[in-house]
Amino acid sequence: MPAQSLERLQPNLEPVALALGEPLHPGKHVYFPLAGLISVVATMVDGASVEVGMIGREGMYSVSAILSEDTPSERAMVQLSGSALRLRACLLRQEMQAEKSLQKLLLRYVQATVSKVAQSAACNRLHVLEQRCARWLLECHDRADADTFPMTHEFLAMMLGVRRPGVSLAAHALQEHGVITYNHGTMTVLDRRGLEVAACECYRVIQDEFGRLTQSV
User: Residues 69, 145: one domain?
Assistant: First the structure.
């Protein structure tokens, strides 16, 4: 964020805790995670859910607040506990109008988010579950503060939009390869490089595109 924008917004940034499993209610506020992980989830009429976005300290929730005052249809929940800075969405939009460099940065962030959603949709259709699981764990590991973090098979299945037995088989295969270990709701990444090899190309495509769009402002 441009220094002048940060200086003007600083008095209005409110520290908040991100508690594991806690839902976030968008509309009035945006959240800038300092630590932890927020998952954005789309839910069908029958209750089935799948993750469509993941936000750590590289981003903010929600991009809808950048574009309008409308409340997004997706819901968000804390996947890894941590902390964030909360800001009234109307103040962010006001600052966007006052500072064109901030507006450009945030619109690039929206573009990066849309690009990630598109790549993830293609990945979910074209790549096998083990590759998708590895990609998702890499993204989670990027935003965690340690190699070990809480994760249940039930939650992982919901995030990937598959049945629990399928994700259990995928996680078991990765564990057999020695890249992760799983025990009582806790996931540990043992071999980061090996996990990258197990993942499809989508992980690197998403990372490169995000870096290109946000670092070139």
Answer: no
Q: Answer whether 41's CB lies under 8 Å from 155's CB.
A: no
Beta-bridge partners for 37: 80
* CATH number of domain containing 178: 1.10.10.10
Q: Does residue 141 sit in the same domain as residue 35? A: no
Q: What is the pLDDT of residues 158-171, one digit of tens each?
A: 778 788 888 888 98
Across 44-64, b (16+ Cβ under 10 Å) vs e yields eeeeebbbbbbbbbebbbbbb
Cis upstream peptide for 62 (omega within 30°)? yes
pLDDT digit string, tens, across residues 78-130 = 989 999 999 999 999 999 999 999 999 999 999 999 999 999 889 888 999 99
Phi/psi class of residue 36: alpha, beta or left (left: φ > 0; alpha: ψ in -120 to 50)? Answer: left
Q: What is the pTM of this model?
A: 0.88
